[in-house]
Design goal:
single chain, mainly alpha
């Protein structure tokens, strides 16, 4: 039973991480400006947040999920403002002709930024709950070891995507860094647009 749940979690974690969004853009930009390790740590922050939400859904922690869903307004507000700030900061970064690894933000700063960003997205828990329910795991009772195997699979699946993305971007780094200024502006503008969309959705909801 444990191996099956582990591989299921692995597939869910990978598929939820793979769509390109703000964290994906941040991973690409930070790999270009700070090196592959910086890009990987950016993604690992999101992977840890995915594991947290996977644990909430996998362990059936309805108290936590209900609380988080009840705080959607504040989470969207905080996440939206944070995205706009990150996008503005990223867009202002110059395109340096001789970019070296390590010129981006520190590893733990990259990790913390994306962990907070992913954690303030209540839609993530809905994705996990929907995925688990669709796979027949939503109402299934399981022991702690089985749930841990599921959550570990989610984390490693998400981490595998970020490792792939940062590695693939790293291979193209030498060709793209000459256009880093443009990449920074486009990435920053897109990330800020995600944040603005979150704030607009709050206004429309009212």
């Amino acid at each position: 039973m444990l191996p099956a749940l582990f591989w299921t979690g692995l597939a869910v974690g990978f598929s939820i991480a793979a769509p390109v969004g703000p964290v994906g853009l941040m991973c690409i930009q930070r790999t270009l400006s700070g090196g592959r390790l910086n890009g990987l740590f950016t993604g690992l922050g999101a992977a840890c947040a995915d594991a947290f939400y996977g644990a909430v859904a996998g362990f059936g922690l309805t108290v936590i999920s209900s609380f988080l869903m009840g705080q959607q307004v504040w989470l969207k507000l905080g996440g939206g403002l944070f995205l706009i700030w990150l996008g503005w900061k990223m867009a202002r970064q110059p395109g340096l002709p001789g970019v070296r690894a390590g010129q981006g933000p520190g590893l733990w700063a990259s990790f913390a930024n994306t962990f907070f960003l992913a954690l303030t997205s209540p839609a993530t828990i809905l994705l996990f709950m929907g995925a688990f329910a669709g796979l027949g795991l939503g109402r299934e009772s399981r022991d702690h070891f089985s749930a841990l195997a599921l959550v570990l699979g989610v984390f490693l699946g998400s981490a595998a995507w970020w490792l792939f993305l940062s590695t693939a971007t790293g291979f193209l780094r030498e060709r793209i860094t000459r256009h880093l200024g443009l990449v920074n502006k486009l990435s920053g503008g897109t990330i800020a647009a995600f944040g603005l969309a979150a704030l607009v959705s709050l206004v429309v909801a009212f």
